[in-house]
Amino acid sequence: MDTQLVEHLGRQHLIGQLLRAGLEVALPIRDRGIDVIAYADIDRRIAKFVACPIQLKVASQRNFSLDLKYARVRNLLIAYVWNVQGDATPTIYALDYREAKALATKVGWTKTASWKRGRYATTRPSRRIVDLLQKYRMTPERWWERVACKK
User: Fold this and answer.
1) What is the pLDDT of residues 67-115, one digit of tens each?
2) Burial bucket for residue 87 (CB in 10 Å: 0-12, 13-18, 19+)
3) Would you call 92 exposed, middle or buried from its count of C-beta atoms within 10 A (0-12, 13-18, 19+)?
4) Strand ranges inside the chain, DSSP E
5) What is the pTM of this model?
6) First vs last Cα of the chain: how many Å apart?
């Protein structure tokens, strides 16, 4: 499966979860580090319009990466969509930059030469990384919390 198709399938899975959460979705015209904008506009649970920019990291199996350039986008969530190819149900983890960097620091990535160049990535996240990501595993209910309640 080519990378564009993998990206498209991951985006559609993310959009489906966001819509099931009761959120709306907008797709930016230009690529400036934001792939999707999730927002809540007309809902009795909110007092005002809220929006959240999302950067997608989609993988046919697994991939975890962090790039220093995403630190500049305020309130950005980085959504890691795994397992979009094959029979496995795709899984989404969503972390803001601070959370992702804390994870990278905890596993020692921020001390590597790769990180000093501004990026670290792995296509084979260790069991430890997968375990650390579990608290960021997304469901429609969790998306509402992260976007509308800013948790």
Assistant:
1) 999 999 989 999 999 999 877 789 999 999 999 999 999 999 999 999 9
2) exposed
3) buried
4) 24-26, 36-40, 50-58, 64-67, 77-82, 91-96, 119-122
5) 0.92
6) 35
